[in-house]
Amino acid sequence: MKVIASSLRKGNVVELDGKLYVVLKAENFHPGKGTPTTSVDMRRISDGVKTTERWKTTEQVEKADVDEREWDFLYDDGEGYHFMNPETYDQVVATEDIVAEAATFLEPGMKVFLQTFDGLPIAITLPQRTVVEITETEPVVKGQTASSSYKPAMTNVGVRVMVPPHIGVGTRVVINTADSSYVERAKD
């Protein structure tokens, strides 16, 4: 189906010259003078080659029909990252370049949105937030106010995050998967 270029978002799949590309980043530019444009960074699904295209924001682009649904992450090995469809129990393997930076947050049993085309995974979307455990951080200093400063901490999944001073080792916290920022203390 045809869509206007300005409506493209990360994870969309477009068809160009008979080949499929997954959108990695899409930005709209509105200069003071001239025509507004959309710049799109894409990866060709067949061979992983990255490319950048620029269209007028009102130009029509062919968007491919992709199956997007919730899958369960099972495990990763030398073959790739294994996911299972919870309804049909079908399993697919996603390669390292498809999972990319999402790999640090993947834990067995985690539910993710996986986009597939002809039964092959092409893009992954993590839940917006995930719960991690703090494994190392500086000790609490008396008199520090909670609102003014944050301290660095390391999580059990290997992600560095800035946390409020009252958070100590062993505390479970909720972090935003998009930018690895602290959201709140976990309620479990």
Q: What does the radius of gyration come to? A: 20 Å
Number of strands: 16
* Structure class: mainly beta
Instruction: State the helix count.
Output: 1
Strand order of the largest sheet: 1-6-2-3-4-5
Overall geometry: flat
Helix/strand order, N-terminal first: EEEEEEEEEHEEEEEEE
Overall structural domain count: 3
Note poorly predicted spans: none
Strand content: over 45%
For the sheet with most strands, the description reads: 6 strands, antiparallel
Percent of residues in helices: under 10%
How does CATH name the architecture of the largest domain? Roll
CATH topology of the largest domain: SH3 type barrels
GO biological process, one term: peptide biosynthetic process
Subcellular location: Cytoplasm
Protein name: Elongation factor P
Organism: Thetidibacter halocola
